[in-house]
Amino acid sequence: MEVRMRSLLTFQTSMAARALAKGLCGLRPSRAVSVGYTCAGHQYTTAASIKPPQPQAEDVTEQLVNQSLEKPDFFRVSELISLKELFDARVHLGHKKGCRHRLMEPYLYGSRLDQDIIDLDQTVQHLQQALNFTAHVAYRGGIILFVSRRRQFGHLIENTARDCGEYAHTRYWQGGLLTNANVQYGVGVRLPDLIIFLSTLNNVFQQHVGIRDAAKMNIPTVGLVDSNCNPSLLTYPVPGNDDTPASMELYCRLFKMTINRAKDKRRQMELLQGLSPPSTPSL
Amino acid sequence: MNTSPEVKQTVLLRWSLWNNMAALCKVISRTRFAVRFSPTRVLRSSFSSSEAPGSDPPAPNKPRSGFAAAFDQQSELRREAESSSAGSSVSSLGKDESFASLLRRSPLIQMGPAKDKVVVGRIFHVVQDDLYIDFGVKFHCVCRRPDDGERLQRGTRVRLRLQDMELTSRFLGASTDTTLLEAQAVLLGPVEGKGGPGASEPGLIEPQSQD
What we know:
Largest interface: A-B, 30 and 31 residues
Oligomer: heterodimer
Shape of chain A: globular
Radius of gyration of chain B: 29 Å
Helix content of chain A: 40-55%
Number of helices of chain A: 9
Strand content of chain B: 15-25%
Number of strands of chain B: 7
Largest sheet of chain B: 5 strands, antiparallel
Strand order of the largest sheet of chain A: 7-6-8-9-10
Strand order of the largest sheet of chain B: 3-2-1-4-7
Structural class of chain A: alpha/beta
Mean pLDDT of chain B: 73
Number of strands of chain A: 10
Distance between the termini of chain A: 28 Å
Helix content of chain B: 25-40%
Largest sheet of chain A: 5 strands, parallel
């Protein structure tokens, strides 16, 4: 059995030595327990032939996750953002001075003829942090929910969510959707691991209820805040224009590319580690 | 003490001007600020400057003042704009430009106040008699279809006279303005002549000169 494992592992190019060591470490505790051991809450009966890949998989998963934390920009999301592109999509345009929210003043570059201009240098930094976080969540297989109550962009957001394999909620938000989920949707409902607000306001210029509820349920949020929005409860606020179709299309494209890139990276790393059945590793 | 050599210069220059150009050159070469310059330039400078011409000696490669300087600057700006638009070098120029310079040169800032400015917009949505027109700023405007506007369909470029970029107003008892999320403009008619410069534009629509 060990010989077969070793021959499998020699197919891998760079991970061979490390995977071999992991394999040996994984085999040692299983040899100690011959019948009936628990792994992630499931009971398994082991015959001698079934050498479990589960403890090995757990170690490898942890190793994958730790690898993604080594570099600050592991997914290279800073390549996706350019200031010129943001400028051409009119992301820097804010509302009039009278609509300004007091807490958005640090993010504003200034005011021109009563129209607020959002500082794109800050937007680039905030957007990079938000995209990086989104990529890490997608890398670990988290559920991402796109939320917006702007009817003009509902279709666009739903298409974006479908294209990257995540979820969207652009309709009426029921009061207990997050806070009362066990009662409304059954026991053991998995809540989203990240909520992306592409517009933080309702149509009546109240803040979306989901921001407060996500903060209550300890769900991190990424939110696009315009100059009349409240950025305080969001984990990763991104100051920018949320009223123009050009800027919304840009944001949707950026989030979609980030999530797809993170998922592809995860698949690639899993193939390199040999978690899936041995095929030609993608490099 | 400082003024006396300059006063002496002025007197000398003015005296020599009336006499001879060769004598003028000799006088100038003896002063403290002996710089080579052509006699014609000396004449021009001494006519233009009334006090202490010697303190600011013009040289052939000195940047010009007045109309000449403005002309140089404008032609350079125009050359830069042409090269950036023709070459479509977004990658080379766009990365170096800061947000401040991008903003300063954007058509929105260059336009100034929006009242009564003529811009070109594009219809992106039609609902029976209402035309939703986007003209390159934050919001679109909604105009009623004119009586002879059968050819105004989705994608048509039209001329607008702007009234307001965003319709906002502070109502009694409110803490912030209420906004309609729309701009206001008067529809002047379709753009005459097909195939204008930059007809297919996903970006900003240039404002026209005021009529």
